[in-house]
């Protein structure tokens, strides 16, 4: 059966933010402006100064009669205080855990909601990789705030994302009627398309990524903090290089939240470099942003990493982006981050410490076994 892609829609009043302090201020400002409804979903929401500021706004809005619904992943947000749940409910808001851990089996435990969604008054949408934790604003000692992105807009994409938010667990009370849609601005300088991954039924993000990688003719630039895609996705990257495409992967460098996981990611470097994929490690802080640019003509921004969990198991939400100005912004962002990164050359990687080689080999075997068990007999 032929799959139909969703329609491209104009993004009105769009913005692409790349500095976490600016992202935080923008979110706070928008939340304070809410008059009817706030739908909020995130993978990470932990106790801290900035998260508490956001949480207090949600409670205040709920007390004022605004419909507030907060959905958090039970694993990613395990640092969310239980007392906050009761406080939000007492204020009139609703709270929902996604997949609390239990005796649900290996595969179901892997399925997390990794999406970042903020919907306000059925009119404004924000997606990205940002999280509600002070580390994103503070950074590690001696480092700058985390590197992340937020793409926000108005327009006809908003009710589609709202429908996605409410799809599996519609609100049981005080739900508002859908706002009447206005005629879209056909002269908008940005157009977007919903790119949602909802395993185990839909693997839309992986399918669209493969189509974009296989269609690249000039450049294919990828920013992701976590990298361990399945073999077919890797083959698509290698195939692009053979066609003469400038393939670059921008990864987290020495500043990372998972040092052992970084070693596992570095186990891919030997093959990537042998296939002439250019590898960059960001140096100034932890790179947590996820975005892609193909031929300067197509972009994607959102929550999905280029790893097998995002592509096969997690609920993710990206937006595909086209348009001269937003794509120029993505290109400028990539060039700036490449300049702040260290490119890993094949010669440099050959000179790495002797002890890293057996450790990389071991981690590669572990990664291969985990993927084989997790993916099982799935057809790539």
TrEMBL record:
UniProt-recorded Gene Ontology molecular function terms: cardiolipin synthase activity
Biological process per Gene Ontology, one example term: cardiolipin biosynthetic process
Location of the PLD phosphodiesterase domain: 283-310
InterPro entries recorded: PLD-like_dom, PLipase_D/transphosphatidylase
GO cellular component: membrane
Gene3D superfamilies: Endonuclease Chain A
SMART domains referenced in this protein's UniProt entry, alphabetically: PLDc
PANTHER family in the cross-refs: CARDIOLIPIN SYNTHASE, CARDIOLIPIN SYNTHASE B
Protein name: Cardiolipin synthase B
Source organism of the structure: Igneacidithiobacillus copahuensis
């Amino acid at each position: 059966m032929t799959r139909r892609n969703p329609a491209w829609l104009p993004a009105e009043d769009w913005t692409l933010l790349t500095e976490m302090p600016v992202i935080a201020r923008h979110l706070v400002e928008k939340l304070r402006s809410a008059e009817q409804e706030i739908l909020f979903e995130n993978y990470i929401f932990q106790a801290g100064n900035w998260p508490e500021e956001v949480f207090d706004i949600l409670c205040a809005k709920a007390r004022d009669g605004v419909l507030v619904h907060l959905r958090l992943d039970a694993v990613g947000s395990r640092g969310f205080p239980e007392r906050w749940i009761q406080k939000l409910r007492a204020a009139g808001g609703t709270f929902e855990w996604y997949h609390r851990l239990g005796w649900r089996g290996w595969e179901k435990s892997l399925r997390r909601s990794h999406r970042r969604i903020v919907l306000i008054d059925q009119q404004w949408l924000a997606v990205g990789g940002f999280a509600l934790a002070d580390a994103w604003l503070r950074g590690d000692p001696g480092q700058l705030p985390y590197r992340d992105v937020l793409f926000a807009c108005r327009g006809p994409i908003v009710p589609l994302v709202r429908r996605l938010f409410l799809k599996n667990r519609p609100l049981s009370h005080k739900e508002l009627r859908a706002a009447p849609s206005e005629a879209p601005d056909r002269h908008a300088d940005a157009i977007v398309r919903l790119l949602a991954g909802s395993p185990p039924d839909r693997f839309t993000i992986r399918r669209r990524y493969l189509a974009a990688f296989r269609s690249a003719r000039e450049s294919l630039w990828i920013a992701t903090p976590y990298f361990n895609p399945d073999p077919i996705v890797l083959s698509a990257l290698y195939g692009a290089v053979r066609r003469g495409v400038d393939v670059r992967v921008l990864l987290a460098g020495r500043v990372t939240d998972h040092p052992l996981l970084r070693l596992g990611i570095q186990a891919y470097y030997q093959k990537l470099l042998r296939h002439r994929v250019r590898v960059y490690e960001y140096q100034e802080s932890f790179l947590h942003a996820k975005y892609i640019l193909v031929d300067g003509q197509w972009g994607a921004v959102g929550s999905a990493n280029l790893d097998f969990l995002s592509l096969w198991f997690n609920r993710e939400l990206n937006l595909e982006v086209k348009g001269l100005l937003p794509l120029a912004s993505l290109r400028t962002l990539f060039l700036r981050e490449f300049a702040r990164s260290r490119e890993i050359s094949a010669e440099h990687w050959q000179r790495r410490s002797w002890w890293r080689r057996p450790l990389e080999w071991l981690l590669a075997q572990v990664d291969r076994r985990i993927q084989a068990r997790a993916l099982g007999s799935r057809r790539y």
